[in-house]
Amino acid sequence: MKLLKELTTCYGPSGNETHIRELIIKNIKEHVDEIQVDVLGNLIARKKGTGKKMMFAAHMDEIGLIVTYIDEKGFIRFSNIGGVSPQRSLYQRVMFENGITGIISYEQKHEDMQKLKLDHLYIDIGAKNKEEAERFVKIGDAACFKGEFICQMNRVISKALDNRIGCYLLIEAIKQIKDHTLDLYFVFTVQEEIGLRGAKTSAFTVYPDYAIAVDVTLTGDTPNAPTMAIEIGKGPAIKIKDAMVITHPIVRKMLEDTAKKHCIPYQYEVLEKGGTDVGAVHITKGGVPSGAISIPTRYVHSTGEVVDMQDVENSIKLITKIIS
């Protein structure tokens, strides 16, 4: 649990993954044969084998904000990095890479909260004026959201479980995998939240025979939630389709057969909007048979995302059993 807390609380909005990448390298370097960081910043770790090439991908980045303007009173205007909701952002704390913390508020003249836009919001870091603010924050600086890490009733509440939980799964799988014939590539990608960019370049480099992304998915188990056949605590979800991919039948069968053989509970995921790294991987070069393991997560892209650790353990088991 200590590792998961370190991963989720680490600074790493899209395009600023250095700190999270270094943390992951620290935790896997003794358990892999090769480590490579490509031009975009993807971390590619290999456990050598003589069989077919299999790639697992989990993105390191999280949603965030980028500074666009600082007014004379020191209030900071910003744009989004990834899918940031104005309503969910209100009164949340954010942190810049240098540790400076701010609070998000909104223009008081704005009354219709349903029509609230990012243009109506600003960050207050407590500066007295523009000059003081600019000593700590400049145009183009990125911030991530801050959220306390809590574990209770075997469920974790935290920011950035999207997708540090996927990174955690791959790290734990790397540690557990000993005997294998597959040539394994574990790729921790950059800039997923702004267009699957790291997945495109890393998949081109690796060009695997098969690929599986590990990421979060939405649920339909909260009051008046959109209809979706996913619940936390009911096992990892095998992706059938999202807005960017239809899982290859070979990979889908591989996941299903492995789960059934080892009595791992699982669900099926049909995500009507959005996608994961697999959306870029499966159309690399001549095509890659691809699929995804999705971790049911409540309140995605908030500072209080929720996962069930039993789903996490079963996801790790599914990955290790596929390989063995």
Brief summary:
This protein is 27% helix and 27% strand. The chain is α+β, with helices and mostly antiparallel strands and 324 residues long. The longest helix has 16 residues.
Provide key terms for this protein.
9 helices, 2 domains, 324 residues, 27% helix, eight-stranded mixed β-sheet, alpha+beta, six-stranded antiparallel β-sheet, Aminopeptidase, Elongation Factor Tu (Ef-tu), domain 3
Give a verbal description of the structure:
The protein has 324 residues and is α+β, with helices and mostly antiparallel strands. The chain has two domains: 2-62 and 159-323, Aminopeptidase (3-Layer(aba) Sandwich), CATH 3.40.630.10; 64-145, Elongation Factor Tu (Ef-tu), domain 3, CATH 2.40.30.40. Helices cover 27% and strands 27% of the residues. The chain has helices spanning 2-9, 18-28, 86-89, 130-134, 161-176, 197-206, 249-261, 278-281, 309-323; strands spanning 34-37, 43-47, 53-59, 64-70, 76-81, 93-96, 101-106, 121-124, 142-145, 150-152, 155-158, 183-189, 210-217, 237-241, 267-270, 290-296, 305-308. The strands form three sheets. An eight-stranded mixed beta sheet has the order 1-2-12-3-13-16-14-15, sandwiched between helices. α5 crosses α9 (309-323). The longest helix is centred in the middle third of the chain and has 16 residues, at 161-176.
Secondary-structure blueprint of this entry?
Elements: H1 2-9, H2 18-28, E1 34-37, E2 43-47, E3 53-59, E4 64-70, E5 76-81, H3 86-89, E6 93-96, E7 101-106, E8 121-124, H4 130-134, E9 142-145, E10 150-152, E11 155-158, H5 161-176, E12 183-189, H6 197-206, E13 210-217, E14 237-241, H7 249-261, E15 267-270, H8 278-281, E16 290-296, E17 305-308, H9 309-323
Parallel strand pairs: 3-12, 3-13, 13-16, 14-15
Antiparallel strand pairs: 1-2, 2-12, 4-5, 4-9, 6-7, 6-9, 7-8, 10-11, 11-17, 14-16
Helix pairs in contact: 1-5, 5-9
